[in-house]
């Protein structure tokens, strides 16, 4: 199913969502909000609501992968290793996530959601794990969480990720509601980058010392699972980039 057909089939009813699940053959657990310029309208009870609520398009949950560690490290700037204060070098990236709940009238901000972000460094290394090619146990760089504010927003200062064998460039994130809530919810997915921007970034230090990456988006098996819906729209921000990604959770 292409993106156009997917959007045309978005109806906010339990019956139709279940039908879409059966057609797709997989679990649809998250909704991403797309910009107002989209032609897809959100059902609204008033003109004022339609002027302020974004349109919404269903997106797929993606695998957590082997490198999630629940560090419970509440911080916005995730570049440093708290043990020694060292900071990971790389092109700066300011990542903003806006978490919403999807209802029949559109997207409502979710306050108090725990949002974890983690990814590899410029040389493809994750912190606090043991891998075939490295061991970083005890280090906690490029990991952390924020709690969404009243607008459903969290923000992370980090770096543009590097690459490692078998994967395209990506960032992992996880959204969890309050564990004491009767509506406890957990969603995990990945964010991706435009290949042409990645190619430019990876010619710089320290990325270049890793060599040319072996896999781009279209060749990545996980990205092929509708990863195009999770590609960040980057804008220049000083010496680096900034991106805002809207994530809507269908909490029922």
Could you please describe the fold and organization of this structure?
By secondary structure, this protein is of the alpha+beta class. The protein has a single domain (62-245), classed as Protocatechuate 3,4-Dioxygenase, subunit A (Sandwich). 12% of the residues lie in helices and 28% in strands. The chain contains four helices and eleven strands, in the order H-H-E-H-E-E-E-E-E-E-E-E-H-E-E. The strands form two sheets. Strands 1, 2, 3, 4, 7, 10 and 11 form a seven-stranded mixed sheet that branches.
Order of SSEs, N→C? Answer: HHEHEEEEEEEEHEE
Provide the CATH topology.
Protocatechuate 3,4-Dioxygenase, subunit A
How many helices? The count is: 4
Q: What is the CATH first-level class name?
A: Mainly Beta
How many domains? The number is 1
Q: What structural class do helix, strand and pairing data support?
A: alpha+beta
Helicity level: 10-25%
Query: Globular, elongated, flat, extended or rod-shaped: what is the shape?
Result: globular
Which runs of at least 5 residues are low in confidence (pLDDT < 50)?
A: 1-55
